[in-house]
Specification:
Length: about 475
């Protein structure tokens, strides 16, 4: 029995779908709004989601990323009364698995559900493969690991996509090590640093005397990868002439070294990776369409760190221990505030950025056994302080206000007397100034120049307020 969710603002259609799906023996639920749908999806992790294209809240296609963020393994099937090819194309690009036209017959519904369930049941278990240094248990990462496990059993070319620092090379190495080629060579080619003038020589090899300086015959990287795996990292950076030279070797596994009269056969498996949008590059003419179709027989998309809910603390522990071992320093614990700041960061550089931040923190805490908030880089602490300030600025119940009259009825007024307005106003101002200055000290890393820039205060006024409240900053 599978779990299926229908999202449509028509209660009649939802009830009809629910009756049909329950009749097929499945657990069925429905939602007439996206907010309810997201709640259901996060709680139940449905195997299949039927999503209407035209919702009152907007195009259902726009909500696909949110649904997949809370339930990455769900197969999303669009429902629509429109057969616009552009809409269908956009839906598939957003992550939809299929597009059904209304009204959907019972026979068609049964067919789609059966096929999707059969496919899910045949998927390999992601956790059965050796994960190398791939750390995390978030739904988004597990979804990528399932694709990796499937690719390990296949033989076609593989394209790994994802933002910079998401771990594409880790996935490529894990793919090789979990395949039947694990005992053979794993060759890495950094396409970003591949000189155009030497690309063909490096990839295909050359005979003696084929160019100035070629004093001996040399095998190319495609030849060296015979029986193993060739990993082309950042394939989107290859120039068009080099892309053209790859076409035949990818199709026939044959190539001719420079100045050679003989062809060479190499039984390699190609794994390519990129942080570029190759489809967009094809449209612009900067990446060959025929090459694109040959490198992506199987595609694995890696999630950015900001979408890997729950993985940051696991990753931080893993890399803190690894860095401490590498630098031969005392193992470090992590304070809760340290971890929460990591979890609130957006991580544009993904795991690579996280590792760099941890290296900085460990260096600052060289003689401390615990990593705390102040060991983090200033920019991260500034971002955290600004986030906290934004959260505090959101209106809340009076009972939860940080400042209340009970806090400012102080002993400066004669006991037993009700304080006058001037007294209360002054005490409130003092309290607010003190809280603001403490936040400013944290956010500015105790730098006078940064504090003035953030607050808009002059140095003279800043020093006056700091002295008034017995606080201090060091001059930058």
């Amino acid at each position: 029995m599978s779990s299926i969710l229908t999202i449509d603002d028509s209660i009649v259609l939802c009830m009809s779908m629910e009756a049909s799906l329950k009749g097929l023996g499945h657990k069925s639920n429905y939602a007439t709004s996206i907010s309810k749908a997201l709640s259901y999806a996060e709680r139940d992790q449905p195997d299949i989601i039927f999503l209407d294209v035209n919702l009152q809240e907007g195009s259902g296609i726009n909500f696909i990323p949110k649904l997949l963020a809370v339930s990455p393994d769900s197969n999303i099937i669009m429902l629509s009364g429109e057969s616009d090819s552009d809409v269908i194309s956009v839906a598939f690009s957003a992550g939809a698995k299929d597009y059904l036209l209304k009204p959907v017959t019972h026979a068609r519904l049964e067919q789609v559900v059966k096929q999707l369930i059969r496919q899910r049941e045949s998927e390999p278990e992601a956790l059965s493969i050796a994960r190398e240094e791939i750390v995390g248990t978030s739904p988004a990462l597990i979804s990528s690991l399932k694709k990796l496990a499937l690719a390990c059993k296949a033989r076609g070319n593989v394209l790994i996509t994802g933002e910079t620092g998401t771990g594409k090379e880790l996935f490529a190495r894990a793919l090789h090590n979990n395949s039947d080629r694990a005992g053979n060579r794993y060759i890495v080619v950094d396409c970003t640093n591949l000189p155009n003038s030497l690309a063909e020589s490096l990839l295909f090899g050359h005979d003696k005397g084929s160019f100035t300086g070629a004093d001996q015959k040399k095998k190319g990287l495609f030849h060296l990868a015979d029986g193993g795996t060739l990993f082309l990292d950042e394939i989107g950076d290859l120039d068009l002439s080099t892309q053209k030279s790859l076409l035949r070797v990818l199709q026939e596994k044959k190539f001719r070294p420079l100045s050679s009269s003989e062809e060479v056969y190499s039984d390699f498996r190609l794994v390519a990776a990129t942080n570029c949008d190759l489809k967009e590059m094809v449209k612009k003419g900067t990446f060959r369409q025929d090459l694109y179709y040959r490198v992506q027989a199987f595609t694995i998309e890696l999630p950015p760190l900001r979408e890997r809910n729950g993985d940051i603390e696991q990753l931080a522990k893993h890399y803190v221990n690894a860095i401490c071992r590498e630098q031969r320093v005392t193992p470090k614990e992590m304070d809760r505030d340290f971890v929460e700041t990591l979890e609130k960061h957006n991580w544009p550089g993904n795991v690579r950025e996280l590792v760099n931040v941890l290296q900085v923190a460990i260096h600052k805490a060289l003689y401390d056994n615990r990593l705390n908030y102040y060991h983090l880089p200033q920019e991260m602490r500034l971002n955290r302080a600004m986030q906290d300030a934004e959260e505090r600025s959101v209106p809340i119940d009076n009972s939860e206000q940080a400042l209340s009259l009970n806090d400012i009825f102080v002993t400066s007024c004669t006991p037993g007397q009700f304080p006058d307005m001037k007294c209360v106003r002054q005490e409130a101002m003092n309290t607010i100034e003190q809280q603001y200055l403490r936040k400013l000290v944290d956010a500015s890393c105790a730098s006078v120049a940064t504090a003035c820039q953030l607050s808009g205060l002059s140095r003279a006024r800043l020093y006056e307020l700091l002295q008034k409240h017995n606080l201090s900053l060091r001059s930058s």
